[in-house]
């Protein structure tokens, strides 16, 4: 019997990277941040406050194994071992279940700190769009959280909602953004408050013969509208950045910018040498980077002791 | 006088044909995409079974979220009005009507004359609707009827923390992985929905007698959870899913509807 292959349209590619310009053996403080989210897990390793390696993977059925998988993936391309790391901080939804971490810090703080490192000290509002929640965070010039609001009750406006949609419409999740602009007329308005209702509306639109790209445009608009409502409650200040997986979806980001009347900052490193050396810029790393930076600060201030074993 | 009441809801269509207070025929079917066509077909079918033709029907009144799609209707009434009229006709002591359908949950305060005094509605979110139960029954791999039955055999109370149907599904899947008995998960789902709909009902206030209608009223497990949540008895009329159509038919008889 022929094997039936089922394609998982929500499944985005997992990535890892190691910095070719750093020899970790020359580093004084090696810190790690492991961000175990509900949908994705990132492990980031930093050497003296510079990005050294990361692994971005899908969260599995439990937090400890997801953290191990993410860390293993981050270490894969380097000869560094887990025992060479001075301090590790867990963050994200599964932060208390990160076996290699010495302590945990909330993802709100870590995303704020990470966005400050990635996009620079002018950042004032960070929108973290995660797998199962979204948070709008106002920060100061040091990346400290001033205020935040979040939606963790409802799948509308989250990455999971976009994955459900990708699977339904049978289009790989990363193609949805670009294709949502290839339309000849304005898309219909679909439910922005409930993924389940949006799903039945989408089925109706598909059956009525509406072009797929228009439906994608409608879904991206609905999601942008939903996020805008959250941001308006907090108040958006420039420089405005988006972190998390949805930041990669232009279909949502561009429509959100239009609704808000505010541009999001370009998705490039604040550090010029990172741009020149073409280090990959992944918006999903903000939490992990923030956690690793907190580890560095704690060690430097003497508020934590190195747990390095080798 | 022969009249027809047609309820076009989020998921299902219900049609009732009445003559002088006697039901001549009734039918139901999935709404589907081409609502106009489906309504016409179902209507013709039920008339044919009753030995009638369209010209024999004096008045047709539509209701439900897609009432306007019934091109041949003489007029329409809001769904809350249809619920109130239909319920008071069958259960005159009713003062609170809770209607949970596929995509909506509402609670209506009614007068002894069947007038709508106040109502609250959730139509924005699938949590607290029939669609939520369907999603969870898929995750549990049992039918909705089966789910209702096994939920009544539950021996332990656990709670579903997710408010969202999408997140609820992941929570149910992890409970299944933890080898939690299906009956206890089913019960937790019923309790969760009962909690949602009870909070909608509390907005208008709960007054005796509480009558439950809509597709979810046929779910004994849910009714049991609702009774425990609101600590009041809940009456369920026969054919609770036909209540909108029955109410529309009552409006047709009374001649009270908008064109």
Number of strands of chain B: 10
H-E order of chain A: EEEEHEEHEEEHHHHEHHH
Proportion of beta-strand residues of chain A? 15-25%
CATH class of the largest domain in chain B: Alpha Beta
Radius of gyration of chain B: 19 Å
Radius of gyration of chain A: 20 Å
Structural class of chain A: alpha/beta
Biggest sheet features of chain A: 6 strands, mixed
CATH superfamily of the largest domain in chain A: ATPase, nucleotide binding domain
**Briefly, what CATH class of the largest domain in chain A?**
Alpha Beta
| Largest beta sheet: strand ordering of chain A | 1-4-3-2-5-6
Average pLDDT confidence of chain B is 92
Domain count of chain B, please report it. Answer: 2
> Would you tell me which CATH topology of the largest domain in chain A applies?
Nucleotidyltransferase, domain 5
Give the biggest sheet of chain B.
5 strands, mixed
Q: Which chain pair has the greatest contact? A: A-B, 19 and 17 residues
Number of domains of chain A: 2
Determine the mean pLDDT of chain A: 92
| Count of individual helical segments of chain A | 9
Gap from first CA to last CA of chain B:
19 Å
Topology (elements, then pairings):
The complex is a heterodimer of chains A (310) and B (259).
Chain A: E1 15-18, E2 30-36, E3 40-47, E4 50-58, H1 63-75, E5 87-91, E6 103-104, H2 107-119, E7 125-129, E8 134-139, E9 145-151, H3 159-169, H4 176-179, H5 195-207, H6 212-234, E10 240-244, H7 250-260, H8 272-276, H9 286-300
Parallel strand pairs in A: 2-5, 5-6, 7-10
Antiparallel strand pairs in A: 1-4, 2-3, 3-4, 7-8, 8-9
Helix pairs in contact in A: 2-9, 3-5, 6-7
Chain B: E1 2-8, E2 12-19, E3 22-30, H1 35-49, E4 59-63, E5 75-76, H2 79-90, E6 96-100, E7 105-110, E8 116-122, H3 130-140, H4 144-151, H5 165-177, H6 182-204, E9 210-213, H7 220-230, E10 234-235, H8 243-254
Parallel strand pairs in B: 1-4, 4-5, 6-9, 9-10
Antiparallel strand pairs in B: 1-2, 2-3, 6-7, 7-8
